[in-house]
Amino acid sequence: MGLTVTSHDDNNAKNDYDYSRDTYYELLERGKEALEDMINVARESEHPRAYEVLSGMIKNISDVNDRLMDLNKKQKDLEKKDEVKQVENQQNNFYLGSTADIQRMLKGDIIDAEPVKDLPRESEPQA
After folding, report:
1. What pLDDT score does 124 carry?
2. What's the rounded Cα separation, in Å, for the pair 38 and 40?
Protein backbone atom coordinates (compact mmCIF):
# COMPACT_ATOMS: atom_id res chain seq x y z
CA MET A 1 0.00 0.00 0.00
CA GLY A 2 2.89 2.40 0.76
CA LEU A 3 4.21 1.96 -2.78
CA THR A 4 0.87 3.05 -4.24
CA VAL A 5 0.82 6.18 -2.08
CA THR A 6 4.36 7.10 -3.15
CA SER A 7 3.42 6.62 -6.79
CA HIS A 8 0.29 8.73 -6.25
CA ASP A 9 2.36 11.46 -4.55
CA ASP A 10 4.84 11.43 -7.43
CA ASN A 11 1.93 11.72 -9.87
CA ASN A 12 0.48 14.65 -7.91
CA ALA A 13 3.84 16.41 -7.82
CA LYS A 14 4.23 15.97 -11.59
CA ASN A 15 0.67 17.24 -12.22
CA ASP A 16 1.24 20.24 -9.92
CA TYR A 17 4.52 21.02 -11.66
CA ASP A 18 2.91 20.85 -15.10
CA TYR A 19 -0.03 23.00 -14.00
CA SER A 20 2.22 25.62 -12.38
CA ARG A 21 4.50 25.68 -15.39
CA ASP A 22 1.54 26.17 -17.77
CA THR A 23 0.17 28.94 -15.54
CA TYR A 24 3.50 30.77 -15.53
CA TYR A 25 3.75 30.49 -19.33
CA GLU A 26 0.23 31.87 -19.69
CA LEU A 27 1.00 34.75 -17.33
CA LEU A 28 4.15 35.57 -19.26
CA GLU A 29 2.35 35.56 -22.62
CA ARG A 30 -0.48 37.77 -21.36
CA GLY A 31 2.03 40.01 -19.63
CA LYS A 32 3.96 40.48 -22.88
CA GLU A 33 0.77 41.42 -24.73
CA ALA A 34 -0.23 43.89 -22.01
CA LEU A 35 3.30 45.27 -21.98
CA GLU A 36 3.13 46.03 -25.71
CA ASP A 37 -0.19 47.82 -25.19
CA MET A 38 1.22 49.78 -22.25
CA ILE A 39 4.27 50.81 -24.29
CA ASN A 40 1.91 52.29 -26.89
CA VAL A 41 -0.13 54.09 -24.20
CA ALA A 42 3.02 55.54 -22.62
CA ARG A 43 4.34 56.73 -25.99
CA GLU A 44 1.08 58.37 -27.00
CA SER A 45 0.29 60.01 -23.67
CA GLU A 46 3.85 60.84 -22.61
CA HIS A 47 2.43 60.91 -19.08
CA PRO A 48 4.83 60.10 -16.23
CA ARG A 49 2.27 57.83 -14.57
CA ALA A 50 2.02 55.70 -17.73
CA TYR A 51 5.79 55.17 -17.68
CA GLU A 52 5.62 54.32 -13.98
CA VAL A 53 2.97 51.68 -14.68
CA LEU A 54 5.08 50.38 -17.58
CA SER A 55 8.14 49.93 -15.35
CA GLY A 56 5.98 48.10 -12.79
CA MET A 57 4.71 45.75 -15.49
CA ILE A 58 8.26 45.02 -16.65
CA LYS A 59 9.24 44.18 -13.08
CA ASN A 60 6.20 41.91 -12.62
CA ILE A 61 6.96 40.02 -15.83
CA SER A 62 10.58 39.51 -14.82
CA ASP A 63 9.41 38.27 -11.37
CA VAL A 64 7.13 35.70 -13.00
CA ASN A 65 10.04 34.60 -15.19
CA ASP A 66 12.21 34.17 -12.07
CA ARG A 67 9.47 32.10 -10.43
CA LEU A 68 9.32 29.89 -13.50
CA MET A 69 13.06 29.29 -13.28
CA ASP A 70 12.76 28.56 -9.53
CA LEU A 71 10.00 26.07 -10.28
CA ASN A 72 12.27 24.26 -12.75
CA LYS A 73 15.11 24.17 -10.19
CA LYS A 74 12.79 22.76 -7.51
CA GLN A 75 11.56 20.10 -9.92
CA LYS A 76 15.14 19.04 -10.68
CA ASP A 77 15.90 18.92 -6.95
CA LEU A 78 12.89 16.66 -6.40
CA GLU A 79 14.05 14.35 -9.19
CA LYS A 80 17.54 14.14 -7.70
CA LYS A 81 16.07 13.41 -4.28
CA ASP A 82 14.09 10.51 -5.74
CA GLU A 83 17.17 8.89 -7.28
CA VAL A 84 18.30 5.86 -5.35
CA LYS A 85 21.82 6.26 -4.14
CA GLN A 86 24.04 3.20 -4.36
CA VAL A 87 25.68 2.46 -1.04
CA GLU A 88 28.95 0.62 -1.24
CA ASN A 89 29.90 -1.78 1.50
CA GLN A 90 33.02 -0.74 3.32
CA GLN A 91 35.08 -3.25 5.20
CA ASN A 92 37.25 -1.96 7.98
CA ASN A 93 40.14 -4.09 9.20
CA PHE A 94 41.66 -3.41 12.57
CA TYR A 95 45.10 -4.40 13.71
CA LEU A 96 45.75 -4.57 17.40
CA GLY A 97 49.47 -4.62 17.94
CA SER A 98 52.51 -2.47 18.15
CA THR A 99 54.41 -0.85 15.32
CA ALA A 100 57.30 -3.22 16.05
CA ASP A 101 54.95 -6.17 15.45
CA ILE A 102 53.91 -4.65 12.14
CA GLN A 103 57.53 -4.21 11.08
CA ARG A 104 58.39 -7.82 12.03
CA MET A 105 55.30 -9.02 10.16
CA LEU A 106 56.28 -7.07 7.05
CA LYS A 107 59.81 -8.50 7.21
CA GLY A 108 58.36 -11.99 7.51
CA ASP A 109 59.54 -12.71 11.06
CA ILE A 110 55.97 -13.16 12.31
CA ILE A 111 53.92 -15.68 10.37
CA ASP A 112 50.81 -15.89 12.50
CA ALA A 113 49.66 -13.27 14.97
CA GLU A 114 48.33 -14.30 18.35
CA PRO A 115 44.58 -13.88 18.81
CA VAL A 116 43.54 -10.99 21.00
CA LYS A 117 41.78 -11.95 24.20
CA ASP A 118 38.45 -10.30 24.89
CA LEU A 119 38.78 -7.41 27.27
CA PRO A 120 36.62 -7.62 30.38
CA ARG A 121 33.54 -5.47 30.34
CA GLU A 122 32.86 -2.96 33.06
CA SER A 123 30.04 -5.05 34.55
CA GLU A 124 32.17 -8.25 34.73
CA PRO A 125 34.48 -8.74 37.71
CA GLN A 126 38.14 -9.16 36.86
CA ALA A 127 39.78 -12.45 37.87
Report:
1. 52
2. 5
